Amino acid sequence: MDTNSTNTNADPVLAQALEWLGEGRRVALATVTRTWGSAPRRAGSHMAITDTGDFSGSVSGGCIEGAVIQTALAVIDSGVPRTLEFGVTNEMAWEVGLACGGKVHLFVEPVVSEPDER
Amino acid sequence: MNADVLRAVVAAQVAGRDLVLATRLTDGVQAVIEAGSPTSTLGLDGDAVASALRTGDPRTVDTPDGAVFLRPYIRPPRMIVVGAVHIAQALVPMAQIAGFEVTVLDPREGFATADRFPGAALVKEWPDRVMETLRPDDRTGVVALTHDPKIDDPALIAALRSNAFYVGALGSRKTQGARRERLGALGFAAADLERIHGPVGLPIGARTPEEIAVAVLAQVIGALRL
Questions:
Q1: Tens digits of per-residue pLDDT, A4-30?
Q2: Residue A88 falls within a domain, yes or no?
């Protein structure tokens, strides 16, 4: 039987986070835990962020990624996970060019290697 | 999150093992729960974990120690397309885009070729031989498209003996009637035969192979999600 690349089933964002860790970079993982209304990314969506602000994946249509990166940097520094809530009002949504009007909860956690007792 | 947890999740995905990552949102304490292993960790209810594994939908559940987020990582649903025909050439890429892992099965020379089905697993075998290896399960849909009982029937027989969440077969009502008689004579009960969606696909007046593919894919997704 001939199988191929469609069977590479690892979540690309998690795989990228692992690769960054392997390169010795510090990483945080943001995950959408709950959505209301017309949120563009489903619960379970991941975004990985490094301590230099590189990121992979998305947790919205682009409107909250900047704020999530800021939180991720703080989380990498403190070693303590945080929950985030974004309620996008329709007016605000228009301002940032995204008329979703949804609401999103996120969990942002540092990814730590065992010996790193912070 | 410990890096070992991340490694465990990625390794399970690569190996095709289903699991749930449970995260207590108040303090970030986590547990990796593999399918089939009992769970009494983090004060979780086994039913909530089982439901997350079955549907693939993440959810947050309340426990005495705070809310716990359940994130299932499960294998994509599979679709076995019997008959590397014109409709299949439209259906296979559409199903792949929708997230299905697709296998195309056709014993005939020149049908199930990589040129015609890029990115799909191809099997040039008779269904009665290969369906046992493919093992349709409750996350597998089987669609028979050849119009040829020599190929479609054995695939449908194997599908009906499995837990496939969807079984469909191309053919007019008359063709379906004749098929029911053949399979009934083999001992399949009416309730078994009811599982076969045929004429295949949602009734949207589809005319072209591409439109029929849309109708079939929509019906398969409905069987998976509704």
A1: 333 367 889 999 999 999 999 999 999
A2: yes
Is the Cα torsion angle B48, B13, B166, B88 positive or negative in sign?
positive
> Does some domain include residue A1?
no
Range(s) of the domain holding residue A78: 12-110
Q: Does A11 touch chain B (CB under 8 A)?
A: yes
Q: What is the reported pTM?
A: 0.74
Contact A71, A38 (CB under 8 A): no
How many structural domains comprise chain A?
Answer: 1
Task: Note whether B120 contacts A18, CB cutoff 8 Å.
Answer: no
Our CA-based measurement puts residue A72 at a distance from the nearest CA of chain B, in whole angstroms, of 13
Q: Determine whether the interchain pair A33/B14 forms a contact, defined as Cβ–Cβ distance below 8 Å.
A: no
CB contact under 8 A, B6 and A4: no
Q: Does B135 touch chain A (CB under 8 A)?
A: no
pLDDT digit string, tens, across residues B194-213: 999 999 999 999 999 999 99
Cβ-contact B100, B113 below 8 angstroms:
no
* Min distance B4 CA to chain A CA atoms (Å): 7
